[in-house]
Amino acid sequence: MPSDSALPVSSSARRPPRRVGALTVGAWIAGLLVALPVLGVLAQLANPSGTAWRGMIATVLPGYALNTAILMLVVGLGTAVVGVATAWLTTMCRFPGRGLFEWALVLPLAVPAYVMAYTWTDLLDFTGPVQTALRHAFGWGPRDYWFPPVRSVGGAAALFVFVLYPYVYLLARTAFIDQSGGALDAGRVLGNGAWRNFHRVALPLARPAIAAGVALALMETLADFGAVAYFEVPTFTTGIYRAWFSFGDRVGAAQLSAGLAILALLLLWVERRARADRRFHPTTRRHRPLPAYRLTGPRAALATLACALPVVIGFVLPAGVLIHFSILGGDGQWGARYVRLAINSVVLAGLAAIVSVAIAVLLAYAVRVARGGPTVWIARLAGIGYAIPGAVVAIGILVPVAAFDNALDAWLRAAFGVSSGLLVSGSIAGVVYALTVRYLSAASQSVEAGLQTITPSLDGAARTLGSGAFAALRRVHLPMLRGPLATAGLIVFVDAMKELPATLMLRPFNFDTLAVQAWNLARDERLAEASTAALTIVAVGLLPLILLTRSIVRGKGA
Q: What's this model's pTM, rounded to 2 decimal places?
């Protein structure tokens, strides 16, 4: 709604595209480098499919499609409801425990989905403590009661909701904090209560951020393999791994991956088209404090319960199971080796976060300046690696990276008589490249949502004062994007800490991470020992989660 602090921007007021400058060219180069492995996967659509692929189309592909559609529907709705509700409560309401929940609600991001699958199964299976306690308490036999099956589409969907809702929570909370209290005060003057103010004012203003968070959750669901495989739920990703590793049909696997990539691109296009003419920007840089709704009695208790349940289900219970297993029989090599593994994981995740956020800012701002044309499509292509399984991204990277290494080595030998060896594919640079391809979309969604809250009039003011595109970005936009940039870095860092397939395939010799250690032990059915590495992944990810979440709050003084 129009007010003193927010006005809709009409699409008819947009200016014509500007000439191609250094910013646009730099964005094209960065975007195409990131999109190169994805383009290689998409190119496989032109190759003839094998017998395994044709057999899958006739038999199991419809089941893959149905399960994937159900997961996306439930995860999209579930993460939106949980993420937006908790973000609004912790931003606008005052109730017991609010200060704790502000940062605790992001903790499920530190738990890998495959670890959640293992802990949930251990808790809720027939032989787990929950069903065992029920049978002992009521004297039931195996056929005397019904219990929801954990290894099912519904169980996998519930797991993804409680693992992935922090994407929506972080972006929605940042958007709510960035809103000025003037718009909400205007709603109060017009007679809006708390609910109508949320529904008619705050929610439309935060829609770009909410849509970005849901898109991240859906793309993570599309690309997941470990959790759905453990829950025995066949999806598109399951088919990719089966075609690749079981049937040896790399063309069929790549074609399935291309289907996932196209689905992710379509998802982003539909969402952006839906809100193309409904963007809202603040019309003043003065930030009025947000009004606070103080809850008491049953309302306060319900708010506390609504925020506590996601934390307990998504973090406390899995962490408790990991601690239990670690105490009973953790890895006997705990010590200096785990310190080195943690350092390796932090270095990789930190480099991936820095590179991904830098490229995301470059691409998002270039799209804002160019206002259309090839820049938009290059940015979209660069961002769909999030929906492609890590192993497929790794294979897509190996081909161009190996070609670059071989060409560079041949040139150095011919020109100087020296060999460069495996400069990229044999170093952590190749892993960082893969992580950037995989998680650039996670950074881009946050950065784009943040840029959409900055009024375009500031761009014009900067140009009037003689600032070029880079100067305006550095002096005007980056200071106003501290919250979204912190959110983007947080998401990429934590995701990269948990990533396994690409790291496993591209890491240098004798360079392991916590995720690789956990996988090696779990593959040998040494689950108690694997709990130590999994618990370390969670512990290492906690500090940046807490610090960055608090920095978002301090950025606006919420």
A: 0.75
